[in-house]
Amino acid sequence: MLxxxxxxxxxxxxxxxxxxxxxxxxxxxxxxxxxxRLRIVxxxxxxxxxxxxxxxxxGVSKSTSTHHFRVLRESGIISQYEEGTxxxxxxxxxxxxxxxxxxxxxxxxxx
Amino acid sequence: MLxxxxxxxxxxxxxxxxxxxxxxxxxxxxxxxxxxRLRIVxxxxxxxxxxxxxxxxxGVSKSTSTHHFRVLRESGIISQYEEGTxxxxxxxxxxxxxxxxxxxxxxxxxx
DNA sequence: TTCGTAGTACGACAAACGTCGTACAAGCCT
DNA sequence: AGGCTTGTACGACGTTTGTCGTACTACGAA
Lengths: 111, 111
What we know:
- 2 copies of one chain form a homodimer.
- By secondary structure, the first copy, chain A, is an alpha+beta fold.
- The first copy, chain A, has one domain (2-109): Winged helix-like DNA-binding domain superfamily/Winged helix DNA-binding domain (Arc Repressor Mutant, subunit A).
- Helices cover 42% and strands 21% of the residues of chain A.
- The first copy, chain A, has 5 helices and 6 strands; from the N terminus they run E-E-E-H-H-E-H-E-E-H-H.
- The first copy, chain A, has helices spanning 25-32, 35-46, 62-74, 93-99, 103-109; strands at residues 2-5, 13-14, 16-18, 51-52, 78-83, 86-91.
- The first copy, chain A, has a 4-stranded antiparallel beta sheet with strand order 2-5-6-4.
- In chain A, strand 5 (78-83) and strand 6 form a beta hairpin.
- Chains A and B meet through helix 1 and helix 5 of A and helix 1 and helix 5 of B.
- Chain A binds a DNA duplex through helix 3.
């Protein structure tokens, strides 16, 4: 399921991520229909650079945080790469918009 | 939570439905991130007239069907009104688009 | 080398969710 | 009236999901 590799803008080892062609819109909606994950995505959308997992104020434990980042990555919403002990995340904005035109924009604009 | 009444285009008693101002985008995403419910919404989007619950080929039992229609109604996505023994559903397209501009369109266009 | 930092993996647990069957209510038709 | 149709209500069930703690790995800094 996880096939290709994420591009790693600042070097570092990219984590496996799914091809967006294999992701259905239901999976994306399900992933984003969770408060913590939506907060992560909103934060990433505002950020200009990839963010390390620890840079978020999520109010959940480390393991829960890890869980949500994995769900987002496996749903094709974010890409991640490791650098040192940190794991950086960024939105797959372009690919997402190509696969589901207007969807991310509409969700981020909501509220 | 369920306050106002749905308009009933063809007469019939409208069921209570939430004010869209009280609905968050997460709730909508969660509701639509389920295959059966997304099928219902897609069918309603194609239909020109409200559809009775029995008009759908959902492949689930009657009680499961009832459950999904309620989730959609309580999430502000559909409105329902009763007429005789039937319960008709329609998308709250206009309100939804006002509350979450572009969201419904993007989801329906996906795939 | 030793310590601290960043994050994962695994197992546990409770709550939410999707599913169903049965029993029931209300309206239509003969 | 009686039966059929359409759909609900309720309770049960198994699964998924979100949460945590503990133990662990890997890297960087003192």
